[in-house]
Amino acid sequence: MPIITQAKSAAVVIDDALCIAEKGCTVCVDVCPLDILAIDEGRKKAFMKYDECWYCMPCEADCPTGAVKVNIPYLLR
Amino acid sequence: MTDTKTEIIEADILVIGGGTGGPMAAIKAKEANPGLKVVLMEKANVKRSGAISMGMDGLNNAVVPGYATPEQYVKEITVANDGIVNQKAVMAYATGSFPMIQYLDKLGVKFEKDGSGEYNMRKVHHMGTYVLPMPEGHNVKKVLYRQLRRLQVAVTNRYMATRLLKAPDGRIAGAVGVNTRTSEFLVVKAKAVVLACGAAGRLGLPASGYMFGTYENAANCGDGYAMAYHAGAQLANLECYQINPLIKDYNGPSCAYVTGPFGGYTANNKGDRFIECDYWSGQMMLEFWRELQSGNGPVYLKMDHLAEETISEIETILHTNERPSRGRFHERRGNDYRKRPVEMHISEIGFCSGHSASGVWVDENARTTIPGLYAVGDMASVPHNYMLGAFVNGGIAGRDAAEYCANVQLADYDEGYLAAERERVLAPTRREDGLTPHEMEFKTRRLVNDYLEPPKVTAKMEIAQRRFAEIRDDLSELCARDPHELLRALEMQTILDCADMAAAASLYRTESRWGFYHLRVDHPETNDEEWFCHTVLYKDDAGRMAHAKREVDPYVVAVEADEMAAYHQLRVKTPAAAE
Fold first, then answer.
1. Would the CB atoms of B477 and A1 count as touching at under 8 Å?
2. Whole-complex ipTM
């Protein structure tokens, strides 16, 4: 069967103005137990790539600039 | 991806899983013999992996002199498990409990103490006093990581172990892992392997329908159970599921262990207590489930009667530790502990000895039934082990493995087996279209809910087995388009293995036991004559799922018959209406 893509809302939100991924920071990507965050190669900012969040919060707690906010995924709210 | 790289390294001890018990196994092995090469393989990143990525708010099973003796603890756990325990292993934990608390304290983990510096113990269990709060327990992972670095444990992050490797003589030879970001292979040859992969926590589907909204860290999907099974190890009492009373939809603990000692309690919709004890046991879950079924549901955690200072203190503990997003969940819902109780619900099913008794069989030295293979923490069969049990048994495994290594050489594994495993792992990457890991996992877990959840019905569990077999056939269409999807595709296969084991183990034990955990509608009675034994599940020589009974070893702590029933009387007695 062919595979389709479908839109999802991102529970983890990154403030681009605060994110310093362009300086080489990958802390949030490194600490995520589910490996769902990534750096956008074009914009050089972190983003939530996969809708597989356990809302555990190391990404938010360990971000050196406070750029990461973990929200409760919509289905649970 | 036909030329995917395979790196081969050698170690004395390979620890798989860098959460709680794994790091402690590595630490204690290095402390026992600093000359050993110890490799710690972790699917995520050791800094923040496992069940306690954000720390822990308390010890649930601390055996502290002056409050409890190891003998009392062994008795309590025996009774809470309807007598089916390997008491020697529980005793090994109980005697190691206090020294481990002191060790963690020395490393910098903070436990609550009173004005004179004594541990501030609280009572939650039915009989004894074993709870030690950790209001500042958020740094546990940092403390462990520092010690791993200090002792020069070699850490490989972002490698998922997929299968164990064995020598022709049956002992352990190492394991194969695959990088979750590159899909490259890493083979670690080792004299001893410690499995510390956590619970099978992605087995049932949360009621919210959000696949990763599990009680356990969703990375803990049962890799250790599947690897142990495929290697031929015995797994014990898998039908004794983990099912927990949780905050509805949030699916984290609410948490009665923390709030109980402050005066909070589990209540029905009338605000009344209905259980005498909030300690998580199968019997307590049975009463919880009955209340949900009755007109008295839903069930709540009630705190709105408490004083403002008490509630603030509870909030500080619950919203900064272990599952800090709890506070964020309540805020969005408009939940305020001061104004209304927190709605609770029953969790999805899983395997986890940390809270119940379903795990890879281990003895008092954390040894599995395969020479050189150890298991610790939530995935090992020592019941009701919690975080401190993972530390203690991790330490036991590390020390024992260090000793074992002195007398054995690295073993060779079967090259053909490794080649076949590489093919199995990479198969989903060789397809351009087909079924996605998410939909295959969702369907497996939805069927787990439909057919395996208690109350267990024979005919339903047999349907589950047929449907799981269909999904197994569909694996030939499973498609992974990048290394991350391959990680999920491999986890999905682990989950399917665990689903099959859950069904088979539950069908084998033809009685009811452990309250709600193994409530069989067509075998409602507990049958001590036939089933006062462990059950073990294993892969036989023909590759089939097989079962056996395993005798309960003679107790080291005697339990009187009248004491054995203590956990069967958890429902609050309502006075008879006046005539």
1. yes
2. 0.98
